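Purpose: get a first structural picture of the assembly so the mutagenesis plan has something to point at.
Setup: two entries, given in the order below. No constraints added.
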Amino acid sequence: MKKLFYLPLLLLAFSGCQPDPLPLDIESAETKLVIASQIVPNEFMLVTVTKSFGALESRSQTIAIDSTEEDSVSNELLEQIIVANARVTVSYLDITDTLTYAGNGLYTSVSTPQFLNVDYVLQVEDSLSGLTASSTERMLELVQFENIEAIRATSNNLEFVQVDYGIQDPEGPNWYMVNFYASRGTNDFSPFNLNAARTETVLLSDQSYATNMINSSHKLYDWEDDTVIVAVSNISRDYFDYLALRQKSGDSVSEFLSEPISYPSNVNNGYGYFTTHYPDVRVFTVPQ
Amino acid sequence: MKRIPVLLVFLLGILPCWAQQTVISGRILDQESGENLVFASVQVKEINLGTTTNEYGFFSLTVNDADFAGEEIEVLVSYVGYATQSVMVKKGSSKPLKVGLADQINKLKTVEVKATRSKQTEELNSTQMSTIHVPMEQIAYIPSLGGETDILKVMQLMPGVSRGTEGTTGMFVRGGDADQNLVLLDEAPVYNVGHLFGFFSVFNSDAIKDMTMIKGGFPAHYGGRLSSILDIRMKDGHHNKFHGSGGVGLLSSKLTLEGPIVKEKASFLVSARRTYIDQVVSAVGSELPYYFYDLNAKLNVSISDKDRIYYSGYIGKDVLKFSDTEQSEDGSEGALDFRFGFDLGNITNTLRWNHVYSSRLFSNVSLINTNFDYNINGKFDSNNLLIKSKIQDYTGKVDYQYYASPQNTIKFGATLTQHVFRPNVISTSGEISEFLESGDGGKIDFQETAVYFNSDRELIGSLLKVNFGGRFSASKVESKFYTGIEPRLSLRYSLTEFAAVKASYSRMKQYLHRVSSSTVALPTDLWYPVTDNVKPQSADQVAVGFHYLFPKLKTALTIEGYYKWMDNLIEYREGANLILNNNFEDELVQGKGDSYGMEFLLKRDEGRFIGWIGYTLSWATRDFEELNGGKTFFAKYDRRHDLSIVGTYKISKRLTFAATWVYATGSRFTARTGQYLVPNPALTGIQVIPIYTERNAVAMSASHRLDLNFVVKSKEARKFRSEWHFGGYNIYNRATPYRINITPIENGIGYKYEQPGLFGFIPSIAYNFKF
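Result (structure tokens, whole complex):
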């Protein structure tokens, strides 16, 4: 009887019909070229060129390489945004390399030598859309691990792999990106193998260290794989700030609670980032 | 110490000695309950001289003996809703008056109503502008969300006060931010003014006597926040008889008891409110482990004709307690043990002593303690988490009012506050301690002080009245010392008996700020003081207004324009995560802001129909070097147009109808308008990166909403009266946008923007009673 009495009250209180949402028209952002790049030392320079697209064309947060997941960017959209007809050049000193189209928006150079402390200028012109973009980035010296080791440990009932490493820090202010990879067991592993199972990225600034030897440590939780691949790259301050912002936006909680982030770019009239860093990679086995 | 006020009395008392004068002073009370009547009108109509009572019902009026036609002069005392009282005062009399006004409803003592200066007239003639005052009797009838009377939401219906997210108590006054409003409950600052993430205010309207909001032209005795002062006064408690009142609604119930301890000498009031939505849901077999409650208490004692002591206390809390256990597959209990809870709330205590030194000098000494704290606790299997934060304030203040002459009232005083902050004390155990270390957030001691002076003077006969003064404020935290000089000036020029022009300038300083995630009000929002790196915020505001009375219609028209420029405003870096972040300073940036606008208010306070139309046209912008690429951007609650129409009509003695219609331009948003693909930094995947407009560049759609309320009163009886409230919120069920979503197009391809609303049509029923 009590429930009968309360039920109409409850219904009355909460029978608020949810109103229909109101529509809204917002002008789409202007389409621009999107640049990403990577250098493989003494091998090639890789530049990807795609186009930005409207917020209403897809709601995926990620794209799976195999693109079989329901929430991944559709193949039709990918075909629209991939730029296949651009003229992409990289100039350094008095040399200009024209990159060759390798498919899927990728452009590669046959061989781009690394000249330290030299500005590399990227120019991109898409004849189909008429869009252009350019960027300049300085090639920084390679920084390598002085020492590195990984062991398995337990703390508070949690197992993890602890990686301790040291980096020789050159003169002047420097910034670093350290990536940790778990291999999928292939013998021919490369950090650029997009099938790697998982990664973690740590950003370091030498401002936090008093000496010119940066000693740091990182814990990898739930790391079942026997192999750990660690890569360190010497990056520019602007790229460091860009990556730090990317990390801040990484979780859904901060996306809901924080102000939206407008990412910086060093691409003129475009998005993304043109970088000239290249990593020192170490691969080793961590016993169970 | 005692000699100082005595000396002041001597010095100030001898000043007007050259003219023979009669100083008429005393208190104005509700005849039945003994409650002080605040800002009641006291007038000597013969010579067109008048004043109003202060916050404690005290007044002082000096009449030249030459103005007495005979041996006595008639003094008229009036107050909205009360029968005007006439008192004859003898020339040379120094005996303080104690005038009780009869409630017009009771008509216990009917008197011939004489033409008097109404409260509206007093407001017209005052130098104070940019002020909102809504009688509590009127607030009780205004429709509200869920039928819960909410004084803060009524303030949001006034011009110059922008509301935040629909249904919440956030206020953005003349382009300011939500933490720039000083909310005082019997002089005690209240840090957290909302229950349930701000959907209900913490103020139980049954315990409140009076409420005034000041948006500009700030008197010198107020300071500490940039944008507004909301001064809320509790009832004192019935001096003569034991009374009670209460109400039962769909969401909460309340009960107030008041009465004399010693008749006409000491009284008490206790008022409690609790939501029982958890009990209602439990009764139908579900679980909602949340509730809130408020408890107000007041004690006041008349020690003598010159001395009164008041004690006010408040405690309020939000409580959430959730637990869940599941059996394991082998049937044993407790395999999954999850508990989560939080409680947060305020405690305030105010002890005040009023002393009347003479017919001209009144003082109030207050000792105030405010606490705000929250506790979050969680347990998941062997993991335990406890997070505590606390703010404690200890304040001493003294205020003097000296009525030098009818043309000159002087106020001065001082205040000193010791703030103690204990942010984010964290205790963890189990696996979670690997990710969240235990730690003491550190204790911060912070002192804040101020002295002020102001004088209210008539010039050029009574055509021009000027209030000038200033406040000197200072703060100290660790080794950092900040000071501020805050000039205050306001003036009134009378054009006719019913028209006046007013102007004001004020500077305000703020030494505290609320660290809050910018989009949602969370229990974990904390107040922090200034530091070496975070400087005090400041605001300069000028305002000009035209005021006109329609006396036969009992209606007042106010048109005001203002310009406010602010410095050292606080915002957060993009991507800032402030939850449990004790290094929040790195995430703060400071910059400037401007706001300007025009406010229009047409208000009727007496008669069968009462209500108002309020309209605001305004702009609010911000300039931060580190945000939006250094370009100027709109403030989040920059709402270009804001219109409120509020009316209450007494159909008969037993039936009252009330309606509210509001319209506002949408609040602003940073909209996602594009995206692109880039590899993640480790090159093991590709991410979609959003592209946004400039900060707050997009305004959501304008919103409008109609709320209604019908009140049916029981037949009038001496001992027990009741009324039923039947209300509806959002009668035509229109969405008030609070965010922008991107959603799939139904039965189509692609996506669209849409703006959902929080609340649709919500009916309500409430039963209120008095005995």
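Residues 88 and 133 of chain A are 10 Å apart (CA to CA).
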